[in-house]
Task: structure prediction
Amino acid sequence: MTDSSAKQSAGEVLARIVDTAAPQRLLSCGTTANEVGQRWLACNPALQLALFEPPQAQDAIAAMAGADLALVSDTLDQLDQAEGSRLLGLLRNYGTQRIAVLVASDGRWQLNELVALGFRRHVELSDGLTLYSYKLDSYNHKRNWNNPRNWANPEMWDKARW
Result:
C-alpha cells in the first residue's frame, strides 16, 4: 500500500484488494466488507460469496474452507478480544489464503495482537481505520534450520545415545 491509500475510504481500499486478488471464493464479514463483496459478485457472477456475522462464523467459514480471500470490517472492534481472536483463528485455520481486516486505529485491537496472529499492518486510513492483512503463503517464512536435514542427526545414528 502506498501513501495514497491513506486518502481512500475503507470501501475503496477493500475494493482494490478484491480487484487485485480476483477471488473465486470470497468470505465477507461486516457492513463495508459485505458491500464490497456484493459489488464484486455483481461483476463476477461465478463468484462464490459467503456473507456472515460472528455468531454464524464457524458454519460459514467451514462451508467455504480454503477461500481465496476474506474481508472483515466493522466487526472486530465490537467483539471482545477472545471472540475476535477466535474469528480470525477460524479464518486462518480453515485455510483462507488471504485475509484483509479493518480495525479502528484507536480501538481495542492494537498492532501487537494482530501481529501475534500473523497479520501485517499496511496503512492507516483517513477515516480512523487501519488495514491489516494475512497471506497464507508468506506469513511464516522458511527458516534454514527448520528442515528435516537438521532434525535427526543421521550421521550420529548408531554412534551416540541421546
Q: What stands out?
A: The mean pLDDT is 88. The domain at 3-136 is CATH 3.40.50.150 (Rossmann fold).
